[in-house]
Amino acid sequence: MTEKRKLLQRYMRNLNDLQDELKRKELENKMKELEMLQVKLARRQEQSGTKCAGGKIKDLRQKKLRKVLGKYMMTLEGFLCELARREARLSGDKGRVSESENLPHPQMLEEYTVAFCAVGEDGRELLEAALSARRCAYAPYSNFKVGAAFRAKCGRIYTGCNIENVAFTPGNCAERCALAKGISEGEKKYTAGAVVAYHPDGFTTPCGVCRQFILEFVQKDIPIYIAKAPPPEQEDCIPAIQDDDEVLVTSAYHLLPYSFNSFE
Ligand SMILES: [Zn+2]
């Protein structure tokens, strides 16, 4: 009897062990399943997240592109307007007001200010050429940009901008830049000039060195047109001098009446 009981006890123990083993295995399997499910879930979340982020990036890019395109279109429209305005002038349409015939002739060495629209066609053309050249100014140190234009005796316009230098002295002014371009191509005489820069307090006239330099290449007094460029906050806009903008019409003589003339 004792033997039998012992056998039964061992059997029961084995059975318990077996059940425990089965339960353990089942638990392990369930754990594995759970892990797999968690990995799957994480992957799906990641994919859906990437999808969302991708969509947002695409939207942002499109928005940015739309903005850039809009800006380009505005610039293009502005250029077309400005082009039409200049073409109309070249073909004889003198614009809204043209009273240049009634104004004192600048070659009479008189200095005066006048609205841009009332400046003669040649002067307006020079000022616009100077304003365009100003866009190329290299002025990283002062950020003071200047554009100049001079009409050679043959009628051709030479433009220039100021070019600064880290060592300061090697820098060059817009006026001398424009004249040097013409002189280097054989143009030694000039009939008019223009200077455009922006200073909140008034007109920017040529520096002393440039005044002396200009007088070297004019047979007689010549008109020098000075206008203000649009303020820095409008630099992204189309460069244009408005009809109402004031222009100083001075002359080479007025700028430097006591120039150095001879060393003999
Ligand atoms: Zn100068």
From TrEMBL:
Q: Gene3D superfamilies under this entry?
A: Cytidine Deaminase, domain 2
CMP/dCMP-type deaminase domain spans which residues? 121-240
Q: Does the keyword Translocase apply?
A: no
In terms of InterPro entries, this protein maps to: APOBEC/CMP_deaminase_Zn-bd (IPR016192), CMP_dCMP_dom (IPR002125), Cyt/Deoxycyt_deaminase (IPR050202), Cyt_deam_tetra (IPR006262), Cytidine_deaminase-like (IPR016193)
Give its E.C. classification number: 3.5.4.5
Q: Which UniProt keywords apply?
A: Coiled coil, Hydrolase, Metal-binding, Zinc
Q: Which residues, by range, are in coiled-coil regions? A: 1-47
The record lists the catalysed reaction(s) as: cytidine + H2O + H(+) = uridine + NH4(+)
Cellular component terms (Gene Ontology): cytosol
Could you say which cofactors this protein requires?
Zn(2+)
> What role does this protein play?
This enzyme scavenges exogenous and endogenous cytidine and 2'-deoxycytidine for UMP synthesis.
Return the protein name.
Answer: cytidine deaminase
Which gene does this sequence derive from?
Dere\GG10527
